[in-house]
Amino acid sequence: KPAAGFLGKAMMARKFSKTYQAVVTPGAPDPAEGMIDQALRRDEVGREAYMRTCPPDHADAETAVSRYRTLATAPGAALMELSPETGRMHQLRVHLASIGRPIAGDARYGGALAVGGHAVPRLMLHAGALEFPHPSGGFKRITAPPPADMADLIEALGLKA
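User: That's the sequence. What structure does it adopt?
Assistant: Structure tokens below.
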């Protein structure tokens, strides 16, 4: 119970850091590394919920900040490393789409369903690492390699970092 309380407080204080990888199209953003500081708002369309960018003074605006870095490029695609500083629904997906670099396979926010002649059957976004303060001191980092289908696409496109 004490560990759960400690981790809950650390999460509320935004002491967790998350790192994602994504395949984006149609190539790397310019600049290749940076920050997207764009407020988001929830938009209901029928039974579906979407997030949209909006001015920070909009009545429903929620602050959203994402950092990005290009790891590798290929014709028509790029492998990106993403770190959200806030945790809004679909934040990385909407932020990348807002700079004209939607995530491959993201039909909801404009991502390509085929890249370089390869079908993209799902969202090419992967939670690669999570770092958080450990209840007994220090930090704990947990990592996971991309799933096989994403790793195969990265290799087929020549996006090895």
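The chain has a mean pLDDT of 96.
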